[in-house]
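[09:14] KT: can someone run the structure on this one? pasting the chain below
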Amino acid sequence: DHRDLHSFPTRRSSDLYLSRVRIKQAVDFLRNTDLNVTEIAMKTGFNSSNHFCKTFKSILGMSPLKYRKLT
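[09:31] RB: done, structure tokens below
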């Protein structure tokens, strides 16, 4: 469908924006709480800790646990 082709880039950039917002919130949890990675993933709207960890690493270049150790 013609509309789907034109809306795809917008949808993709909005997904990236949402992921960055969620990861920013996750960073706050990692710095300021003792919540584990699965709890943080669920609180920030990810359906699985695996997807959360992959997204976190793709945005920040390291795993959530490594990030927590460095901060």
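[09:33] KT: thanks! The longest helix spans residues 2-32.
[09:34] RB: yep, looked fine to me
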